[in-house]
Amino acid sequence: MPTEDTINLLKECDAGCKMGIDAIKQVIDKVENKKLYDIIVKYLNDHQKLQNKITDKLNEFDCSEEQPSAMAKAMSHMKINFKLVKGEHDKEIADLMTDGCNMGIKSINKYMNQYPAALESIKSLCYDLAELEENFAKDLRHYL
Asked: What CATH number did the domain enclosing 122 receive?
């Protein structure tokens, strides 16, 4: 049976990955630049693949999925809608996605420190999520 740290870390990884997918889906239809669109689609697909791995682990451990907090989702939606009222959608989208990546990296590292006794296989999923966010933010720099 997995430890409490393992379950808690896995659930936080689950919620974080879902938050990223949700944010990407909110902006993807507003992207105007084809190259930026392709980058965002790539990272949406990468997030979804990782989410599938996380879901498999949750099922393996007979755990329920974790949803991002309602407050976090509401704040994300408000920020995205507010920022996209302005004109330059692509720059705003790149900025929003970069901020989201940075928050995701910060959160997942905080939870990895908070749950040090988690199984290495779950820590590996968290490292994968952090690396995915780092690469996404790096690929967005050109559009800021």
From this structure: 1.20.1260.10
